[in-house]
Amino acid sequence: MTGTAFVTGGSGFIGGHLIDRLVTEGWRVRALARSESSAAAVAEHGAEAVRGDLDSPDAIAAGAAGCSVAFHAAAAVLEWGPREEYVKGNVTGTENALAGCRSAGVRRFVHVGTEAALMAGQPLVNVDETAPLRPDSPANYPSTKAMAEQLVRAAAGADFETVVIRPRLVWGPRDTTIRPA
């Protein structure tokens, strides 16, 4: 299956590699870009940059128009910061991405989540996809990613399929966090 895909977070590590893969497989890709440097990064990967950010469902809808699938890889992944920044990036940003993509007629929305959405201060042992989300986590990143995933799950419908993936500890070429060059 190929066609046109929309990507948020395309200038980031996971999003950039995702764009590379989609382009290699023959997809036409549009990616949300909030700055000139983000636009240059997604263009370097072969995507058409669409100016806007997660604050604007209208910009997201414009970028996602004509796309059959959207990949939401943008997130507030901060070492530390006020809760409001996590809520804005992870919860409100996801809510806006869902609204924009749905209004654009996107049929499938793939959310890049995290196993951290299951964490609330204890190690994860013998968990699978039935483990409960932990929006009550005392840590900002896990709790807001859990809230975002709840929004994605609730948005699923007959005309709007939602999928959540939870990659764990992703690193490799171009990584700037785990093993920076």
What does this molecule look like?
It is a single chain. This protein has helices at residues 13-24, 36-44, 57-64, 83-104, 140-155, and strands spanning 4-8, 28-33, 48-51, 69-72, 108-112, 161-165. The chain is an alpha/beta fold and 181 residues long. It has a single domain, classed as 3-Layer(aba) Sandwich (Rossmann fold), CATH 3.40.50.720. A 6-stranded parallel beta sheet has the order 3-2-1-4-5-6, sandwiched between helices. α1 links the parallel β1 and β2. The longest helix has 22 residues, at 83-104. It is globular, with a radius of gyration of 16 Å. The N and C termini lie far apart (35 Å). The mean pLDDT is 93.
CATH topology: Rossmann fold
Distance between the termini: 35 Å
What is the radius of gyration? Answer: 16 Å
Q: What kind of sheet is the major sheet?
A: 6 strands, parallel
What is the CATH architecture term? 3-Layer(aba) Sandwich
Order of helices and strands: EHEHEHEHEHE
Q: Compute the number of helices.
A: 5
What is the tally of beta strands?
A: 6
| Number of discrete domains | 1
Q: Could you state the oligomeric state of the chains shown?
A: single chain
- Tell me the CATH superfamily: NAD(P)-binding Rossmann-like Domain
Strands side by side in the biggest sheet: 3-2-1-4-5-6
Low-confidence stretches: none
CATH structural class:
Alpha Beta
